[in-house]
């Protein structure tokens, strides 16, 4: 039985939501450890959006954002992307590097590595919660980074969703450190065959 | 006071003069800009995938390069465009991330551009200019006045093709 992404019912969406909740929760904990700060988190919102609306997310298609893309291998294949607004990325890097929070100089090499490490940790904790929920072996590759217009970065996971259906599913998370709010979006894009593997492992599809 | 119309992802729009058609933050998707000099009717498609014949669900024609071009020409003809006078410009098809191993996910931009060229050639629509490839996003604006295609980037300047 093939899983058509547009035919996912509410129950499937709820299951994916729950993975999102647990994954983002673990990601917040991991982030707190990395930054050695107390990190609070809003309840993540799982959103399903039509392509036409995608351009309006994260404050507009032309807003500069940082995109971290990891390929996923193992029992599931696909990719996972974390996108955060440029300002938020600066705030995180500043906390990490002990710089003034309002510093907005272009990222240097070390800061780019720090961002990739951030991607590693966030995606890694997300995938490990998925792994323990499903019993599947899921491994991320080293992240690649791109800083550009939101629309252009989002086109990468959106195209993958385009192969499955006419909507994009993503998880909006908000991390809070003191008065700094960091809004980021997770896109989890299993390859077409992997959706079935995932839902079957969760006992959703017989 | 120009009439600016936004074209979303997997979307297409046609318009009569005076109008500007724009699509924001074009990444690996390809922007297909069509212009009929004789009637000043313009059309812009923001297509995500090269080939509708490979897909199971083709309900959104604007999603695929091949079907988007056909649908866009239809829309333009409805607005009075002369099919034989239509010319094209292309933008987008970037590779946003540079993984060392090449895979479908990464070469999709290039494949979108090639699909657009093939389809336009098949239909006998000349491609006047293009700004494709690279590893950066583009915002594009197509003007009905003269068919100019304005391309804006972050860090790679602004140009008109």
Write structural notes for this entry:
The complex is a heterodimer of chains A (206) and B (161). Chain A is an alpha+beta fold. Helix content of chain A is 45%, strand content 28%. Chain A contains six helices and eight strands; from the N terminus they run αββαββααββαββα. In chain A, strands 1, 2, 3, 4, 5, 6, 7 and 8 form an eight-stranded antiparallel sheet that branches. In chain A, helix 1 (10-35) packs across helix 4. Chain B is built from two helices and ten strands; from the N terminus they run βββββαβαββββ. Chain B has helices at residues 65-78, 104-122, and strands at 4-6, 11-15, 20-26, 30-36, 41-47, 86-92, 127-132, 138-143, 149-152, 158-160. Chain B has a five-stranded mixed sheet, with no helix packed on it. A five-stranded mixed sheet of chain B has the order 2-5-4-6-7, covered by helices on one side. In chain B, helix 2 (104-122) links the parallel strand 6 and strand 7 (127-132). The longest helix of chain B has 19 residues, at 104-122. The A-B interface holds A 4, 6, 51-55, 60-62, 64, 67, 69, 71, 79, 144-146, 148-156, 158-160, 162-163, 165-166 and B 6, 8-11, 24-29, 48-49, 55-57, 59-60, 63, 94, 96-99, 103, 105, 108, 135-139, 154.
Radius of gyration of chain A: 16 Å
Distance separating the two termini of chain A: 9 Å
Helix content of chain A: 40-55%
> Percent of residues of chain B in helical segments?
10-25%
Radius of gyration of chain B: 15 Å
Structural class, judged by helices and strands of chain B? alpha+beta
Oligomer: heterodimer
Task: Summarize the SSE layout with pairings.
The complex is a heterodimer of chains A (206) and B (161).
Chain A: H1 10-35, E1 40-41, E2 45-50, H2 51-54, E3 64-74, E4 78-85, H3 86-97, H4 109-134, E5 138-140, E6 144-149, H5 150-164, E7 167-177, E8 180-190, H6 192-201
Antiparallel strand pairs in A: 1-7, 2-7, 3-4, 3-5, 3-6, 4-8, 7-8
Chain B: E1 4-6, E2 11-15, E3 20-26, E4 30-36, E5 41-47, H1 65-78, E6 86-92, H2 104-122, E7 127-132, E8 138-143, E9 149-152, E10 158-160
Parallel strand pairs in B: 1-3, 6-7
Antiparallel strand pairs in B: 2-5, 3-8, 4-5, 4-6, 8-9, 9-10
């Amino acid at each position: 039985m093939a899983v058509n992404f547009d035919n996912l019912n509410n129950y499937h969406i709820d299951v994916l939501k729950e993975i999102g909740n647990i994954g983002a929760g673990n990601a917040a904990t991991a982030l707190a450890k990395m930054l050695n700060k107390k990190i609070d988190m809003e309840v993540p919102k799982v959103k399903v959006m039509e392509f036409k609306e995608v351009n309006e997310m994260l404050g507009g298609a032309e807003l500069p954002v940082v995109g971290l893309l990891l390929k996923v291998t193992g029992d599931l294949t696909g990719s996972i992307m974390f996108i955060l607004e440029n300002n938020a990325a600066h705030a995180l890097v500043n906390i990490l590097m002990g710089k003034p929070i309002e510093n907005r100089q272009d990222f240097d090499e070390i800061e780019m590595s720090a961002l990739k490490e951030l991607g590693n940790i966030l995606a890694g904790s997300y995938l490990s919660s998925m792994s323990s929920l499903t019993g599947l072996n899921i491994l991320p590759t080293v992240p690649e980074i791109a800083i550009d217009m939101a629309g252009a970065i989002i086109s990468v996971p959106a195209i993958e969703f385009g192969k499955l259906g006419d909507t994009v599913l993503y998880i909006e998370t908000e991390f809070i450190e003191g008065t700094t709010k960091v809004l980021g979006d997770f896109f989890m894009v299993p390859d077409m065959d992997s959706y079935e593997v995932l839902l079957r492992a969760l006992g959703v599809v017989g | 006071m120009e009439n600016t119309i936004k074209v979303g992802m997997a979307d297409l729009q046609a318009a009569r003069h005076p109008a500007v058609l724009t699509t924001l933050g074009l990444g690996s998707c390809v922007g297909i800009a069509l212009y009929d000099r004789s009637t000043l009717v313009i059309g812009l498609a923001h297509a995500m995938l090269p080939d509708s014949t490979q897909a199971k669900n083709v309900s959104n024609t604007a999603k695929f390069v091949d079907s988007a071009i056909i649908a866009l020409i239809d829309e333009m003809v409805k607005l009075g465009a002369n099919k034989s006078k239509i010319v094209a410009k292309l933008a987008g098809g970037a590779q946003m991330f540079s993984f060392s191993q090449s895979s479908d996910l990464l070469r999709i931009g290039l494949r979108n551009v090639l699909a657009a060229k093939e389809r336009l050639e098949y239909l006998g629509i000349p491609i006047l200019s293009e700004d494709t490839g690279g590893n950066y996003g583009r915002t594009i604006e197509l003007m009905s006045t003269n068919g100019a295609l304005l391309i804006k980037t972050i860090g790679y300047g602004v140009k008109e093709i």
